[in-house]
Amino acid sequence: MVIAETAFTPIFSSMKAVVINQNGDSSVLQLQEVPQPVPDHHDVLIRVYATSINPLDWKLREGISKILPGKFPKILGAECAGEVAAVGLMVTDFQPGDRVVAEMGADGGGYAEYALVNEKNVVKLPDDIDFVPAAAIPVAGLTALQALRDLGHLRPGDPVLINGAAGGVGTFAVQIAGILGGRVTAVCSESHAELVRRLGANRVIDYQKTDFTLQPDRYRIIFDTVSKRSFTDCKKALTDDGVYIAAVPSASQIFQDVVTTFTTQKAETVAMKFSKEDMQWLLTLVAAGRLEPVIEHVYLLREIAKAHQHSESGHATGKLVVAINHTDEEK
Ligand SMILES: NC(=O)c1ccc[n+]([C@@H]2O[C@H](COP(=O)([O-])OP(=O)(O)OC[C@H]3O[C@@H](n4cnc5c(N)ncnc54)[C@H](OP(=O)(O)O)[C@@H]3O)[C@@H](O)[C@H]2O)c1
């Protein structure tokens, strides 16, 4: 979200937000007082109680990705959960007080006390899901579901390997692959073996000791949530009709996606697209206790730089969430 000047008198006052005014390391993340955004016709203004960190956030912060329009100040944060504070004139599905969860992608806006989201990207939150776990679901949960179901066409009994099984996307992928009936092999470091087993992995491979691509086992789906391997590396570990799915796009990966249109083994790259139906599917499973948003740590708004540093280490466990308590402690 870019904080825009508005011709209207804001109906709300100011809010605390973590803002960047330039690209750079985590020190560019500054807790500041900024104007509250004002909803346009199709917008929902959310009083944010939790947001979460995604690697996308620090890639945008660093400026290594050119997705970020060169406009500052900018508030990052691709997803949030909270209560509806106000709605635009054309919004009929939401009203103030509704508990909701939302996804904003690269537009951001989640690292703030209030976030503006188009109604298309907002869903109601069941009463039995708290804001902190809810904020961990949209980006990682939808990516895992859409990769395995839409690109992998996962069928019951399929052998599935999840590389990066202990991360934000990986912890959802291990569970969703199991829920869809896959026989799941999880690849992570030894320190995370117990976690991924608890999430339903049938087998665990420690990537520091064993290279799964050199083992005799074959998988119908290899979902590389951290894109540490390539389609070429994984070809021998795929069944003849197997698919390698990358979460991180690259020129070589996209080349393989195109080339394998003509072969039985496929390479694919997932590009998560927000879907209310898919979000409902995830929320229903979470509410039923069948899907667990794994959260390593809950930070405060003023600790976001620390959260970014941990995410950038590449060894976060599940998701890193930021709780927003709307008190002066945030200062
Ligand atoms: N295309 C899309 O639509 C989309 C959507 C969401 C995310 N993404 C991208 O997907 C990537 C993963 O996101 P994320 O949120 O899951 O990241 P993350 O939570 O930061 O991933 C951290 C995990 O990576 C594991 N890992 C690190 N090195 C590894 C290796 N060599 N082999 C296996 N696992 C390794 C770590 O496990 P250990 O600590 O056990 O080593 C850690 O648990 C990011 O680059 C993100 O930008 C893309």
Summarize the structure in words.
- Helix content is about 25%, strand content about 30%.
- With about 325 residues, the chain is an alpha/beta fold.
- It has 2 domains: about 160 residues, Medium-chain alcohol dehydrogenases, catalytic domain (Quinone Oxidoreductase, Chain A, domain 1, Alpha-Beta Complex), CATH 3.90.180; about 130 residues, Rossmann fold (3-Layer(aba) Sandwich).
- The strands form 3 sheets. Strands 3, 5, 6, 7, 8, 15 and 16 form a 7-stranded mixed sheet that branches. Strands 11-10-9-12-13-14 form a 6-stranded parallel sheet.
- Strand 15, helix 9 and strand 16 form a beta-alpha-beta unit.
- Helix 3 crosses helix 4.
- The longest helix is centred in the middle third of the chain and has 14 residues.
- The protein is globular.
- The chain starts with 13 loop residues before the first strand and ends in an 8-residue tail after the last strand.
- The N terminus is likely disordered.
- Bound molecules: NADP nicotinamide-adenine-dinucleotide phosphate.
